[in-house]
Design goal:
heterodimer; A: mainly alpha; 14 helices; about 75% helix; globular; B: alpha/beta; Rossmann fold; about 30% helix
Chain lengths: ~350, ~290
């Protein structure tokens, strides 16, 4: 029971840290708006009151900064969660949410819409990206099933799909896009939260909630994969069903996140390792901690991305790697002897 | 033999299984006596591992049935089976930084439901498993720092945490030094579970198993007590090895001493061997007799 209380306390502390990060992050930005004004305007929206700021400044806070920061939190949580699940399920410390080719498929879908005009204006970039991601994942499932369905076949099929769709994306960009479009596409490929709106936030949050619930339900089952699939089977785990459920949940979540914000690298690969160094490998604790850590991390990474070269913007994927790699090395270094 | 014998414990009846077009098991039957250690012997490729996997229910037989207390394994559900029957592989490894305690707790996976914290019974089973394997004071040690023998001990503790009545071990002593081999078999035979152990070492089998089953080419070629099974003829037939079987202690377990490889098809003539025949073929087929000084 004491342990249960500790878990609750930890979760509450993590959520408080995330809320504080979001609250501070939305006060930072190129437009000089006072901290009190920012919070007052958010409180007014939440409480149904009338904001006192000018419509433009109110819009900056409520329609630009807040959805963007929230989307950063959702993306960070989702990508880190997917990475943790993939690494355990595929027994591969190098696995990340993009290992199944989902991000490459999304890029191809997005490029097809932006550059080639596929969908005739009906299909948005987000919609095209999502379709591309789902196509790519379906291809990986089909390939890995045909090839025998074992873990290494899944990884190899993912690598094949990734290469295929990257090549298609490059081909389309090189042959059909002008310089300006190429720059826009590249920005999206590196991952950016610049276009975040409330719709993105709600859609991604919904998918995240569903995927997180599913994965937490399988937390103990994932523990059983530590010694491989046959060992898991001998512990009473329905290996094939677990694999397909978790692959689908994480792939759909990744597809939704990538469609909204591009392929933000690093978060899904490294934050699960950092979280493991913090709380150990048990998934009941690891999954929520990974998600919270990812959320906080990406909120701050995106805040840096949009302010550090003000008024220019750095793709958040670049920032995540630049600050994340040294942080990761530090985590590994500090935990090298204790674990 | 009591009338209920057929319905208690684990039992395989005329099970067959093919892998990649080859018949690996051909109508094998095995019925370990509850509470005893049965040794599963046979050369590489004789079907020992496949039989163990069929008994564990992770592989289904192509024909024949495996039953647990008379119920077909296939109809019992994986979790139910995993609460009755535990497996230890010949070697296990992980990428994850687990402690001894983490590994032993895995044994509670089939007993627990999603979203619920571990029960008092879970914790008690884990503690008891650690105590029975002499690992109580090493619970916090990282798995990766353990030696091969210690790792096998931890896997047995994990298996015990499942609270099984049947324990299946696939060549558990393969990578261990002599002391750890004896330690491990001592531990297994002291557990008072129904254990089926695939083994390569005939003397280890003779020392610790109440009964032996010998597989060769996917069939049972001998079954019985070590005394009945481990004969010079059987060892020559199954392993193609010449051996002397003695009884160092009167009334005790048999002891096998190997004398050398025997007969066809692996070495055509003792002494000269295959290279001499090759020489004959390549150098001079006209000269009579084997070439030599």
């Amino acid at each position: 029971m004491r342990k249960g209380a500790a878990v609750l306390l930890g979760t509450a502390a993590g959520l408080a840290l995330l809320a504080a990060s979001i609250a501070v992050a939305i006060t930072i930005g190129p437009a000089r708006i006072g901290v009190a004004d920012v919070w007052a305007t958010v409180a007014a929206h939440l409480g149904g009151g009338v904001p006192e700021l000018s419509p433009i400044r109110d819009g900056i806070v409520w329609d630009l900064r807040l959805p963007r920061t929230l989307l950063a939190a959702v993306c960070g949580a989702g990508l880190a969660l997917c990475g943790a699940v993939m690494q355990s399920l595929l027994r591969n410390p190098l696995a990340d949410p993009f290992v199944l080719g989902v991000s490459s498929g999304a890029s191809t879908g997005a490029v097809a819409v932006v550059v080639l005009g596929v969908g005739g204006g009906v299909l948005s970039v987000t919609g095209g990206a999502f379709l591309g991601a789902v196509c790519s994942f379906a291809l990986v499932l089909l390939l890995s099933h045909t090839l025998g369905g074992s873990t290494d076949r899944v990884v190899l099929s993912g690598v094949a799909a990734m290469q295929l769709f990257s090549a298609l994306t490059s081909f389309v960009v090189m042959t059909a896009a002008d310089a300006e479009t190429t720059r826009g596409v590249l920005f999206w490929l590196l991952g950016s939260l610049a276009g975040a709106g409330w719709t993105d936030v709600w859609v991604c949050l919904g998918v995240l909630a569903a995927a997180l619930t599913t994965c937490l339900g399988y937390a103990r089952t994932l523990d059983a994969f530590a010694f491989g699939e046959e060992a898991a089977a001998s512990l009473g785990v329905a290996v094939a069903r677990t694999r397909i459920v978790l692959l689908c949940a994480t792939a759909l979540l990744t597809a939704a996140l990538v469609s909204a914000a591009g392929a933000i690298g690093f978060v899904g690969l490294v934050l699960p390792h950092a979280a493991r160094a913090l709380v150990g490998p048990g998934h009941t604790r690891l999954l929520p901690v990974t998600a919270l850590a990812g959320a906080v991390f990406l909120v701050w990474a995106d805040t840096l991305a949009r302010t550090v070269l003000d008024p220019q913007e750095v793709p958040v994927g670049v920032v995540t790697s630049l600050i994340g790699v040294p942080a990761f090395v530090l985590v590994l270094y500090r935990t090298r002897s204790t674990r | 033999m009591t009338p209920t014998r057929e319905d208690t414990g684990l039992r395989a009846d005329r099970v067959s299984r093919t892998a990649g077009g080859t018949l690996v098991l051909d109508g094998v039957g095995i019925a370990p006596v509850p509470g005893t250690v049965t040794g599963l012997l046979g050369p590489n490729g004789s079907g020992k591992s496949t039989l163990l996997r069929l008994l564990a229910g992770v592989l289904a037989p192509d024909s024949g049935t495996v039953t647990l207390d008379g119920e077909p394994l296939a109809g019992l559900g994986r979790r139910t089976v995993a609460r009755r029957l535990a497996t230890v592989e010949q070697q296990s490894d992980t990428q994850t930084d687990l402690t001894v305690l983490d590994v032993v707790r895995l044994g509670r996976v089939p007993h627990r439901r999603a979203w619920t914290p571990p029960s008092v019974a879970d914790e008690a089973a884990v503690r008891s498993a650690l105590a029975r394997t002499g690992l109580a004071d090493r619970a916090r040690q990282p798995w990766r720092t353990l030696s091969g023998g210690e790792r096998q001990r931890v896997q047995i503790a994990r298996a015990l945490a499942q609270e099984p009545r049947e324990l299946l071990l696939d060549e558990p002593t393969n990578h261990l030094d002599v002391q750890h081999q004896l330690d491990l078999m001592e531990l297994v035979s002291g557990l008072r579970l129904t254990a089926v152990v695939a083994l390569h070492d005939l003397n280890l089998a003779a020392m610790y198993c109440e009964r032996l089953v010998v597989l060769s080419g996917g069939r049972v070629v001998a079954a019985g007590t070590p005394d009945e099974v481990l004969t010079e003829e059987l060892i020559a037939d199954v392993y193609r090895v010449r051996a002397a079987v003695t009884h160092p202690d009167p009334g005790g377990r048999p002891h096998v001493r190997f004398l050398g490889t025997a007969g066809p098809p692996y070495s055509p003539s003792p002494g000269s061997g295959a290279s001499a025949s090759m020489k004959e073929l390549t150098e001079n087929t006209a000269r009579p007799g084997p070439a030599g000084p």
